[in-house]
Amino acid sequence: MTTSPVPSQADHVAIFPLMAKGHTMPLLDLACVLRGRGLAAVTFVTTPGNAAFVRAALRQGGAGDAAVLELAYPASSAPAGGEGAEGVASAASFAAFAEATSALRPRFQEALAALRPPASLLVADGFLYWAHASAAALGVPSVSFLGTSAVAHVVREACVRDRPGAGADVGASAGATTCYTVPEFPHLQFSLRDLVPPPPQMIHLDAKMAAAVAASRGLIINTFRQLEGRYIEHWNQHIGPRVWPIGPLCLARQSYSPGGTGSQQRHDAKPSWMQWLDDMAAAGKPAVYVSLGTLASISQAQLKEVSDGLDSAGVNFLWAVRRPDNADDLGTGYEDRVVGRGKVVREWVDQRRVLRHPSIRGFLSHCGWNSVLESVAAGVPLVAWPCDFEQPMNAKFVVDELRIGVRVHTSDGAVGGLVKSEEIATAVKELMFGEAGKAMALRAKGIAAQARLAVSDGGSSWKEVEEMISELRLRGVDMNGKANGGTCASIL
């Protein structure tokens, strides 16, 4: 167990994300905000295999003085796929990865007790339910971080209560026509095929997470009131514990990053994908960015449909392919055929830099919340392709409520089913070339302006961060006081 020095500060916040890039990056952003605004000293908790990435991101975000606490797994207790979740291939294996992190609990509790100055607050990922129990045992107030949208949380709670489709045959004939309407929000109507329950392993994990969230002092969500205000208020009034909407954290972080970007240092070599984007911009050629996330495994058949769809759409595109997927064969001569208007990347790309690039005009996305929010923050409309988890709820929000996206549909109507190349081509062309796509782009720019205001000095999210630290400091004076008493029943 190793750590680096903690800067002197009245408040000391320990931050502990799930060891997955999509969960870690928003909390790295939060660490940069807390340090950049001088609100608290920060100790960032991770494992040795993730420490180099964490330190580099903190340094690049202007929070290089934050302490990094490395917790090593006991011998033979590390998750099967390694210390990061990027190698998992299914929801079930993701649940196994998250549960395996509990092997860190004894070392984490010992380290949390030993922090000097003592931690005044723990911010821990909801998946690390056991970390909240450790904090409670030590009298340290904790808040949960959940990397999903407020609308998804509200819909999930309604589904747990109402059990839509329970006992019904949601087969091929019924799935397209049988719907569930959220009673509190009648505009939210979902096909039962969009509400597929998680596997048993995730249900068991969900119960533990929900209990930890309900017992915590609050809930951080990476969103902002102008985007999801009605769902935030519903949660606060009817579910609880209190939500602190402090995003988009990717924008808040930029104010404290060297050069204002939070991306690679200026002296680093320019990645090939960034050079390609620069070339597109110099030639006046708009492009679509394609990424289906870091956790969803894409079949070879689906990869071929994507490649054919992008080819026939006639658009310029940058396509980031997930490393574990077998993407070596996208069709004979495919990459030679699209050279000059398409680039396939099999390495990690800085998605935030991509979306902010002036050549990017659209984003074909799985609609994980990080991707949605980063696209919103950049003012880029989306082609919404939900694959798993809460993504169908995010997709509906993007397409029907924000009206900044086009939904693609699987050939059999089931989430996770095959999407044909014709469907992909039609949706991409509508977004990039159609009149509806132009209107979506304008609306996306307007929402991006609201996002920038939210994280600017005096904005709604700016104020939420200060209020959270101040209120939790006052609550922490009485360590015997009760938590908010939320009734949260479901997280996933």
From TrEMBL:
Q: Does the keyword Disulfide bond apply?
A: no
Which InterPro entries does this chain map to? UDP_glucos_trans (IPR002213), UDP_glycos_trans_CS (IPR035595)
* Superkingdom, taxonomy of origin: Eukaryota
Which EC class does it fall in?
A: transferase
Q: Which UniProt keywords apply?
A: Glycosyltransferase, Transferase
E.C. designation(s): 2.4.1.-
Q: Does the keyword Cytoplasm apply?
A: no
Q: Can you cite an annotated GO cellular component?
A: cytoplasm
| A Pfam family recorded for this sequence | UDPGT
Q: Which GO terms describe its molecular function?
A: quercetin 3-O-glucosyltransferase activity; quercetin 7-O-glucosyltransferase activity
Q: Which PANTHER family match?
A: GLYCOSYLTRANSFERASE (PTHR48047:SF51)
Would you identify the family this protein belongs to, as annotated?
A: Belongs to the UDP-glycosyltransferase family.
The protein's name in its UniProt record: Glycosyltransferase
Give the source species.
Answer: Zea mays (Maize)
Q: Which gene encodes it?
A: LOC103632693
